[in-house]
Specification:
Layout (H helix, E strand, L loop, with lengths): L18 E5 L3 H7 L4 H21 L4 E8 L7 H17 L1 H7 L1 E6 L7 H13 L6 E9 L1 H17 L10 H5 L12 E4 L18 E4 L9 H12 L11
Parallel strand pairs: 1-2, 1-5, 2-4, 3-4, 5-6
The structure holds 3-methylbut-3-enyl trihydrogen diphosphate (IPE) (2 copies) and magnesium ion.
The site of one 3-methylbut-3-enyl trihydrogen diphosphate has 11 residues, from strand 2.
Length: about 250
């Protein structure tokens, strides 16, 4: 009967790459616990981004994807959204030199149309300036939603089929994935969420099919190199089976 079993797609088991994705959560609670406004937590959170990028380079991470702002985060009070946009400007203006020095390529995934012109320009400039760097591929998800990404890919695939550029039977997992926002980035090996919540909140829904999930109680503003190293040790201790049996 085994001949009736369709060949399974081979999951990526890259050993030359190590992709860490992080849902950076807990800025607001961190601040509130200290009697500070939530925005103080976001400011400290931006420092944790800086530290995590450096730590990733040191620890041999090749791809780092950070959830910076979800498509649902617009629901927050205008003051908080404005403060987050301000921090994004500060980061994009102030951090590109350092990214260059560290050999980091920055890319943004998500729908940029809702950002102001100056932020869109800063993103484009940072992407352009760092595009040849190869030490760490940093992807920041901004105004990002996993379902929106999958829907956009489905629309592009449908257009290609309607135009006759693609036959329906050519719509495979691989061709579909090729229409996602960052098709050249391998799937995350490990997904970390800080600050105790154990949910995905619409992040990288397609890409995390076989990611190892690591949840930590550490709030994002307190997250540092040791926490990243701990998460990687936890990840390395696990057996990834990709649906097969133990070797
Ligand atoms: C993560 O921290 C930052 C963003 C979502 C922009 P939060 O702001 O979600 O902090 P908590 O979860 O309310 O503590
Ligand atoms: C997810 O965190 C988005 C980011 C980290 C940018 P949220 O704090 O928005 O998620 P929920 O609302 O707790 O699910
Ligand atoms: Mg949160």
């Amino acid at each position: 009967m085994s001949h009736l079993i369709a060949p399974q797609p081979q999951p990526q088991t890259p050993d030359a790459t190590l992709h860490v994705a992080i849902i950076m959560d807990g800025n607001g609670r961190w601040a509130r616990a200290k009697g500070l406004p939530r925005t103080a937590g976001h400011k400290k959170g931006a420092e944790a981004v800086r530290a995590t990028v450096k730590a990733s380079v040191r620890l041999g991470v090749t791809h780092l994807t950070l959830f910076g702002f979800s498509s649902e985060n617009w629901r927050r009070p205008a003051d908080e959204v404005n403060a987050l946009m301000g921090l994004l400007r500060v980061y994009l203006r102030g951090e590109v030199d350092e990214l260059e020095r560290e050999g980091v390529r920055l890319r943004v995934i998500g729908d940029r149309d809702r950002f102001s012109d100056d932020i869109r320009d800063l993103i484009a400039a940072a992407e352009r300036r760092t595009q040849d760097n190869t030490r760490l591929a940093l992807t920041v998800a901004l105004n990002y939603g996993g379902r929106a990404e999958i829907t956009a890919a489905a629309r592009r695939v449908a257009e290609a089929v309607a135009d006759g550029r693609l036959a329906p039977e050519q719509v495979t997992e691989a061709t579909f994935a090729g229409h996602l926002f960052a098709p050249d980035v391998p799937d995350p090996d490990v997904l970390i969420r800080t600050s105790g919540e154990q949910r995905i909140s619409n992040f990288l829904l397609w890409q995390i099919a076989y990611a190892e999930l690591v949840f930590t109680d550490v709030a994002w503003p307190d997250f540092g190199e040791q926490d990243l190293a701990d998460a990687l040790r936890d990840f390395r201790g696990r057996e990834r089976r990709f649906g097969a049996v133990s070797g």
